[in-house]
Amino acid sequence: MAATVTRLTRIIGEHGLKLFAVIDQAAEARAAGLELREMTLVVFGSPAAGTPVMAAVPLAALDMPLKILIWADNGQTKVSYDSPAALAVRRHLTDALAARLAGIDPLTDALVAA
């Protein structure tokens, strides 16, 4: 888990994207006296890419910045995110606006290839 989070944050920086937050959700649950499997939410994006999307479709801001969840599942580390295609359908984005979100795919490709 930790190595995957570290790799992802490095890849985000290498791609010139802004890292907004790394939220250790399991640690936050423990701090509240609760149990939760290991999971970390990485929040990142490109204001230059995302701002036109939010300007055209304000509700798209509910999905931005982009997020990748890294989580433990029975000894395996999993990586999950909403694809640009799914976000485009949910927010009724044009092809041109959806293309602005496509930068997430190379990140996850690089992450799982490492």
Shape assignment: globular
Distance between the termini: 14 Å
Number of domains: 1
- State the CATH topology: TATA-Binding Protein
The average pLDDT score comes to 95
Low-confidence spans: pLDDT under 50, at least 5 residues? none
The SSE string, one letter per element, is HEHEHEEHHH
CATH superfamily: TT1751-like domain
Instruction: Look at the structure and give the CATH class.
Output: Alpha Beta
Specify the biggest β-sheet.
4 strands, antiparallel
**Rg computed from alpha carbons, rounded to a whole number of angstroms:** 15 Å
Structural class: alpha+beta
Sheet with most strands: strand arrangement: 1-2-3-4
Number of H/I helices: 6
**Beta-strand percent range:** 15-25%
Helix content bin:
40-55%
**How many β-strand stretches?**
4
CATH architecture: 2-Layer Sandwich
How is this fold's topology laid out?
Elements: H1 2-14, E1 18-24, H2 25-31, E2 39-45, H3 47-56, E3 66-73, E4 76-80, H4 84-91, H5 95-99, H6 104-113
Antiparallel strand pairs: 1-2, 2-3, 3-4
Helix pairs in contact: 1-6
Question: Which key phrases capture this entry?
Answer:
single chain, 114 residues, alpha+beta, TATA-Binding Protein, four-stranded antiparallel beta sheet, 6 helices, 4 strands, 46% helix, 24% strand
Describe this structure in words.
- This protein has 114 residues and is an alpha+beta fold.
- The chain has a single domain, classed as TT1751-like domain (TATA-Binding Protein, 2-Layer Sandwich), CATH 3.30.310.
- 46% of the residues lie in helices and 24% in strands.
- The chain has six helices and four strands.
- A four-stranded antiparallel sheet has the order 1-2-3-4.
- A hairpin with a 2-residue loop joins strand 3 and strand 4.
- The longest helix has 13 residues.
- The chain is globular, with a radius of gyration of 15 Å.
- The relative contact order is 0.18.
- The model has no long low-confidence stretch (mean pLDDT 95).
